[in-house]
Amino acid sequence: MATLEIDSDAAAKSSKSHHVDLKLEVVVIPVSDVDRTKAFYARLGWRLDADFAPGDDWRVIQFTPPGSACSVIFGRNVTAAAPGSARGLYLIVSDLEAARKDLLDRGIDVSEPFHGAGDVHAGPDEPYLFGSVRVSGADPKRGSYRSFASFSDPDGNGWLFQEVTTRLPGRIEADDTTFASQTDLAAALRRASVAHGEHEKRTGGHDENWADWYADYIVREQAGQELPT
Fold first, then answer.
1. Digitized pLDDT (tens) for each residue of the chain, 229 residues in all
2. Is residue 228, in this structure, part of any structural domain at all?
3. How many domains does the chain divide into?
4. Which of 49, 55, 90, 222 has its CA 20 to 30 A from that of 122?
């Protein structure tokens, strides 16, 4: 989720003082009809990891979104929360339009792109969206963390696509550059290609060291550092 400010010194101290990795791997969503929900998440193209039902009174199903290290589980007697009460479930994407098109091609209802205006929470109906109101269309400057689209499962559990192309400083180190999927890597290469084209226009010639320039651009982008020009 978007973080507008970060104390980099505190983050650095924190990362050095802890030696135990804490990896969020499962989010529980409450549903009313297990088989209907299973069909919906399968339709999204998510990977089915498990469907366990050792008895009539308990069943758990696990799905994992493409490229995600975190899975979702739901089922029978898995949680006491009201069906559809899970909101603000963020799915980070590098290309919002491509993510929307994938869902639309699968016949899934997804909102038009939107961005938030202001720096306060949206209100009781959308407490998970930064911005006082929804503004139609992607962020005009296409700023990282600022463009969204939303969809819901059959019970109303709410999901948000959030487009992130450049991580905020402190969220990732330059020597930890990784990509969750081939799609994310390809998107980063395309952005580097466009930026490199502008670089060649400014310098007035062909850059034979384009591979090094691409690498520098991608590493800096992922680390939230100033980009090469």
1. 444 444 545 544 544 555 677 889 999 999 999 999 999 999 999 999 999 998 889 999 999 999 888 999 999 999 999 999 999 899 999 899 999 999 999 999 999 999 876 543 344 445 455 545 778 899 888 888 889 999 999 999 999 999 988 777 655 544 556 666 677 778 888 888 888 888 888 888 777 778 888 888 877 777 666 778 7
2. no
3. 2
4. 222
Q: Are 188 and 75 in a shared domain?
A: no
144 and 72, same structural domain?
A: yes
- Which pairing describes strands 71-76 and 26-28: parallel, antiparallel, or unpaired? parallel
Q: Which of 128, 163, 198 is the last residue of a domain?
A: 163
* Domain end residue (candidates: 114, 138, 163): 163
Domain that holds residue 209: 174-223
Q: In this structure, are residues 130 and 107 in contact, taking their beta carbons and an 8 Å threshold? A: no
Other C-beta atoms lying within 10 Å of the C-beta of residue 201: 9
Burial of 73 (0-12, 13-18, 19+ CB in 10 A): middle
Q: Residues 158, 178: one domain? A: no
